[in-house]
Amino acid sequence: xxxxxxxxxxxxxxxxxRQRAHLLECPNYLNAMKEHNPQSSIxxxxxxxxxxxxxxxxxxxxxxxxxxxxxxxxxxxxLVTRGPPVPRPSFVAPANPLRAVAYTHPRLxxxxxxxxxxxxxxxxxxxxxxxxxxxxxxxxxxxxxWGKGTVVPGGQEKQLVAQxxxxxxxxxxxxxxxxxxxxxxxxxxxxxxxGPRDVLEKLNDPAMVDTIDPKSYSFRTYLHMETGxxxxxxxxxxxxxxxxxxRSSDVIFDFYRVx
Length: 259
Known about the structure:
It contains five helices and twelve strands. It is α+β, with helices and mostly antiparallel strands.
């Protein structure tokens, strides 16, 4: 049987004395020992060809256990005084893999407030993804840094309620501006309403929903707008994230534009 040296990859017979003799001649192993344990007696043995005399205090036989087999005895002057050094890998990963890149950090600016009056929800039923509901929009109004207007009746919101009552919302509706003539802006809004189960149960109860502290749950959405009106083309490339409040007959959103 044979064994391969992990330092120089040479193959030797699997014999303890031959392996030790090879280590005394292996330059890669000796270099590793110089780096990790420069006081090791094996370096002296390799240089002088004679082992260092044992300490006079070490006259009684030593009982080896798992720990001393790896780390050696205190004051041990044997061939290996600690576990053999492990060769360093050729590639060392950086401490912080994120590179410093010069780019503009996004910031948020409060840009739009939206209030929508809702019809009672229509329960579609349990699907493979959760309980499905549909809600239509009666009307509403909005005010932004770039204009104001109303919500065109007929918008719809699809809800998907998970087992823990977390609710995914996906709505589509149209904003009408107060300009003459008015501009029309289509809106896609999607997000999640999450929180403790007892709070979400009350939010689904028309008699309790107005008593819930908005800070006790999270209602976060993102919004995208689209229009062909030349006065509002800048909205097509915008992105907004919003925080909402659910009430018995309407919802209120504050949207922040990502700059």
